[in-house]
Amino acid sequence: MATIKDIAKKANVSSATVSRVLNYDRSLSVNDSTRKKIFQIAEQLHYDKTKRHYKRKLKKIGVVLWCDAAQEIKDLYYYSIRNGIENGASLQNYQSQVIYDGQSLESLADCVGIIVIGYQQYSQKRLQAIFSYKKPMIFVDADTLDPGYSCVVPDFHACTRQVIDHFLKHGQKDIGMLAGDLSSNYDKENLIDFRFQDFKNYLTQLGLFNLDNVFVGQFTPESGYNALNDALDKNKKLPQALVVANDAMAIGALKALRQHHLRVPEDVSLISFNDTTAAEFANPALSSVHVDTNEMGKLSVCVLENIIENDFKEAFKTVVKTKVILRESSIN
């Protein structure tokens, strides 16, 4: 496992700077280029990137993201998936053309296939524009069997229950969630985040669901901080345990809890999703649901290549195993 010291040495910055960047400390005076460099090095040291070399001409695949480059490094989950896709493309002798939100899709015309990261985050207009290129296509981190597209998804459904069972095992029945929604006009009872739906359904079965214990952010550290800080400023009593939709929001939540002198995990336990590199460097280190996002990205290239080479007509779903990694933010 890479250490903060390893990252700092390669990035030519101090260990303190690396620690503050990985904990999304926006008060740190460092430019976005340096932040991105640190995140990239952290991911590079976390994964083996052995590459093969080919002599034949490279074909190109398009990689479409729902966010811009600045948003991408606020949630390393998507960065790591995209990084894995680029690694897998290199191994399979493809060039990759990355297209962020707001950028032109015209280069897709020259691609032999398309990998789209996410699904619900896109407007219908953007999706229709992608579909119009009529290329072999798969989606990553979105179950798109119903719309008729092959996909690669993590098995977060089973892990949501495992997280809740872990809290219950340690006597924590008052369980809430810091859920995510990109829209500010969300319906709190029917958030589209599938993690929330699994959370709500399981706790309802157990007779433990309480809508007052649900807080909503927009998948960023700032929004996680704001959601809990606003509740605490209003003297709202927090539940004993929180399921958090991603590591980025969990890091923001930790900051809010510290400022209000609440101990983690003694007063509030947290288990988040994605287990990005930042999770292990948080203070305290985050318990998190792990999915090998780099491997998921690589796998998506293999799936796309099978579709291209074998001319598959029917959509299919590939599910990647997940597991709960327990660290300091939960009672274990």
Automatic annotation (TrEMBL):
Residues in HTH lacI-type domain copies: 2-60
Gene3D superfamilies listed in its UniProt record:
3.40.50.2300, lambda repressor-like DNA-binding domains
What CDD domains does the annotation carry?
A: HTH_LacI, PBP1_GalR
Known InterPro entries for this protein? HTH_LacI, LacI/GalR-like_sensor, Lambda_DNA-bd_dom_sf, Peripla_BP_I
The yes or no answer to whether the keyword NADP is present is no
What are the protein's UniProt keywords? DNA-binding, Transcription, Transcription regulation
Q: What Pfam families does the entry give?
A: LacI, Peripla_BP_3
Q: Where are the transmembrane segments?
A: none
Q: Name one GO molecular function term.
A: transcription cis-regulatory region binding
Q: Which SMART domains match?
A: HTH_LACI
- PANTHER family in the record: HTH-TYPE TRANSCRIPTIONAL REGULATOR EBGR, LACI-RELATED TRANSCRIPTIONAL REPRESSOR
By what name is this protein known?
Lac repressor
User: What taxonomic ancestry is recorded?
Assistant: Bacteria, Bacillati, Bacillota, Bacilli, Lactobacillales
